[in-house]
Amino acid sequence: DRNGNPQALLLHQVDEIKTLSALKGGISADEAGSGKTMIVALTGLHLLGQIETVPGRVGRMLVVGTKSVIDNWENEIGLHLNTDEIDLINLTYSTKRRKEGIDFSLAERLSMFEETLQAGKKPIQIGMVNYDVWRNPFFQSMLKRHPVDVLAIDETHNVKAAIFAALERAE
Fold first, then answer.
1. What is the mean pLDDT of each run of 10 residues along the chain (171 residues)?
2. If 0-12 CB within 10 Å is exposed, 13-18 middle and 19+ buried, where does residue 86 land?
3. What pLDDT score was predicted for residue 154?
4. Of 143, 156, 139, nearest to 64 (Cα)?
5. Would you call 73 exposed, middle or buried from its count of C-beta atoms within 10 A (0-12, 13-18, 19+)?
6. Spatial distance between the Cα atoms of 2 and 11, rounded to a whole number of angstroms
């Protein structure tokens, strides 16, 4: 809960995680507040656990969404999951960060993002980017150097045909 006390998943959340995991992906289109972020995050982590990777290579999940959605992902994962073995990498520049005095250019953020991917200090990395960054050619080339195992797209009603084409190229 919001006070840091562990909470059990609800039955519909467990069912959806099982279904999405069995299908190795899918669409989660539940009502607002039903726990979709955690459903998709836990499904992604479960799928990462099923992927055989090269020893020493971290498992990577990439979340693509609007800027506000990405900040929500970071907050929800930090609140509900033990992040001792998860590197959360939020490339999105948010109003919250601007208020905190953190002001990096896109080039600086991309460089820091790639440095974190290369370092691989934790066995799992969850990268979070907005649609503008996703379309950036340098970011696309970075994905070729640092492959992603699981991709989550949030707020897909904002996705345009060009983004779907880029997703197909990323496979």
1. 70 88 82 82 86 76 87 83 86 62 79 89 90 89 91 70 64 61
2. buried
3. 83
4. 156
5. buried
6. 20
Angle, in degrees to the nearest 10, between helices 161-170 and 137-145: 20
For the chain, where are the E strands, in sequence order? 59-65, 86-90, 124-130, 150-153
Residue 32 token pair? 């607002």
The pTM of this model reads 0.79
Which residues are registered as beta bridge partners of 86?
124
Please name the amino acid found at residue 159: V
Q: Which residue has the tokens 């897909």?
A: 156
Residue count of the chain: 171
- Asked whether the beta carbons of 87 and 122 are under 8 A apart, the reply is yes
Q: What is the DSSP letter of 109?
A: H
